[in-house]
Design goal:
Elements lengths: L1 H65 L23 H24 L2 E5 L1 H9 L7 E5 L6 H9 L2 H4 L7 E5 H4 L3 H9 L2 E4 L8 H11 L3 E4 L19 H7 L6 E8 L1 H4 L12 E6 L6 H9 L4 H36 L4 H9 L18 H6 L5 H9 L3 H19 L5 H8 L1
Parallel strand pairs: 1-7, 2-5, 2-6, 3-4, 3-5
Antiparallel strand pairs: 6-7
């Protein structure tokens, strides 16, 4: 009996020992497998992360090599002279040669004949247009008051003879969602030298490249630095956008920048009006060209970022326009007081404008005189040479024609045929 009990006890001990050994071996094996799995997972994650990091570094290096500039956002983008072959086609130039002079002269007659326009500093624009060096580009900047600032204001600043040459006239920019909505409007604005730009696409979009290509060929580009019309009828001006800075700095040669401001277009073309009105007064003040020599020297001698240069050019142009706007407001007040004291009828103003038409170039004999000095000062013509000619003429023939034309107009209006009231009703 004792031997059997001893054997059973030893068997239980051996069984417990084997069981504990089995458990210890299993636990040790599980730990080893878990550690190996964790090491494998960590090594796989490190591999993918290092691969992604390596590709990001390669992309960053490629971007830095592609944009050779001190700034990773703004850079100098070179533009060729012939990036738009369709715009340079023979058909396009022929249609522009017809459409631009017609619209330009109609706007010129409308502004000078049916409205009253005062121009100060016209010699600054004429000097830049007629006497700038060959292949020297021109940029004109102005405030944006009404939807028809261009072409009405631009046409009023130029003599009719210059409006006949479509090649020398301005290019301008217009939002694609406003002027290029459908094929008809797109074709029309294309043939009157308007370039499309898309809102929100930045300063490196195709429309800006097209404008720079025109500047590289020595052309004339007009732009509104504010980017949109005034929200309060021209009482205040918005800040100049960065796009004007790129036009100035990214052209092959720094263009001449002539600023001017105007007031009165808010009365000719109020917000919501479909047709321009007549019998209004518009005043234009043209300033001296803007100088950027100090900014260009900073670009050559110092490590100035491209974005800061764009902002500096835009700020300088905006500051010049603000100063001109203050001067223009004072001139407008003085003219309003003078107009109240000495009102000029529309008929007499139209008669004076007829003197400025070159009838002989149109195949008609000129039977009228030319304006006297006082009228020329009050209604300055856009050609300085023509002004000197006006001062040399006598006053009697002009007085005679003005009075005769005014009497004929009044008698014609009294008969009810195409009276002034009917003209205002059609145009308003």
């Amino acid at each position: 009996m004792a031997v059997e009990r001893w054997i059973e006890c030893r068997g239980d001990l051996w069984k417990d020992g084997a069981r504990s050994l089995q458990l210890r071996v299993r636990d040790r094996f599980r730990v080893h497998r878990r550690r190996n799995f964790q090491n494998l997972r960590l090594s796989t994650t490190d591999y993918f992360s290092s691969t992604v990091r390596r590709w990001l570094d390669r992309f960053r290096d490629f971007r830095h090599r592609s944009l050779p500039s001190s700034s990773s956002t703004f850079y100098r983008k070179s533009v060729g002279k012939d990036i738009d072959a369709e715009a340079d086609s023979v058909l396009t130039r022929m249609l522009q040669a017809v459409a631009v002079p017609i619209i330009g002269n109609v706007c010129h007659v409308f502004m000078h004949g049916l409205n009253r326009i005062q121009i100060y500093g016209a010699e600054n624009l004429h000097q830049a247009l007629l006497h700038r060096p060959e292949n020297k580009a021109l940029i004109t900047v102005s405030n944006h008051v009404a939807a028809m600032d261009d072409p009405l204001i631009i046409a009023s600043l130029l003599p009719p003879s210059m409006l006949l040459n479509a090649h020398s006239l301005r290019w301008t920019l217009c939002a694609s969602d406003r002027c290029f909505r459908n094929p008809v409007t797109s074709a029309f604005f294309k043939y009157v030298k308007v370039l499309p730009v898309s809102r929100g696409d930045g300063i490196y979009q195709k429309g800006m490249d097209l404008a720079i290509s025109k500047l590289n060929r020595g052309g004339w580009v007009h732009i509104f630095p504010e980017g949109s019309r005034s929200r309060d009828g021209g009482k205040t001006m918005g800040s100049s956008k960065r796009g004007i800075g790129r036009l100035v700095l990214d052209a092959d040669n720094v263009p001449i920048v002539v600023p001017f401001v105007h007031t009165g277009m808010q009365e000719i073309m109020p917000v919501g009006s479909k047709f321009p009105k007549v019998g209004k007064t518009v005043t234009v003040l043209i300033g001296d060209p803007v100088n950027f020599n100090d900014l260009l020297n900073n670009e050559e001698n110092q490590n100035v970022s491209r974005g800061n240069l764009y902002d500096a050019v835009s700020a300088r142009i905006g500051d010049r326009l603000q100063k001109l706007k203050l001067q223009l407001d004072r001139l407008a007040v003085e003219q309003a007081l003078q107009l109240q004291e000495y009102p000029v009828p529309v008929a007499e103003r139209a008669a004076r404008y007829l003197h400025q038409v070159d009838w002989e170039s149109l195949g008609m004999e000129n039977h009228v005189g030319v304006e006297d000095t006082s009228l020329t000062k009050q209604y300055p013509h856009v050609e300085p040479d023509a002004t000197q000619t006006y001062e040399q003429e006598s006053n009697s023939r002009d007085r005679y024609f003005s009075v005769g034309f005014a009497r004929w107009w009044n008698s014609f209006k009294d008969k009810g045929l195409y009276g002034l009231d009917r003209i205002r009703g059609i145009c308003s």
